[in-house]
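Worked problem 6 (solution included).
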Amino acid sequence: ISSGVAAKAGSSFFFAAGVGPTVEGDMKTQALSALETLKGRLAAAGLSFKDVTFLRAYVVPDATGAVDRTGWGEAYTTFFNNKEQPHKPARTTIAVHSLPRPQWKIEIDAIAVGP
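Solution. The predicted structure is:
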């Protein structure tokens, strides 16, 4: 995770908000689904994960109050900070009481910078 990412002068910004899962399941399953949806939104704008400068994940704790940071982290490293895609955006994870759809465990906002 980067603590900060700069944008070059003349860049354009792309904001994605409210990206949720399209499937039910555990945190990793839902996070993978939400990131796939984000990938499609980025592609439609001519961008990719290498252009993402910031991610904000809203996550719902389980009944014990614990957040599945492992599941979210495993999904994240499927798309970022790996051999195929070494890019690391700045990232925040926030535990929330609930999300717009009761079955959601995660919702993602993203900022990308393109030419």
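Discussion: The beta strands are 12-19, 52-59, 90-95, 106-114.
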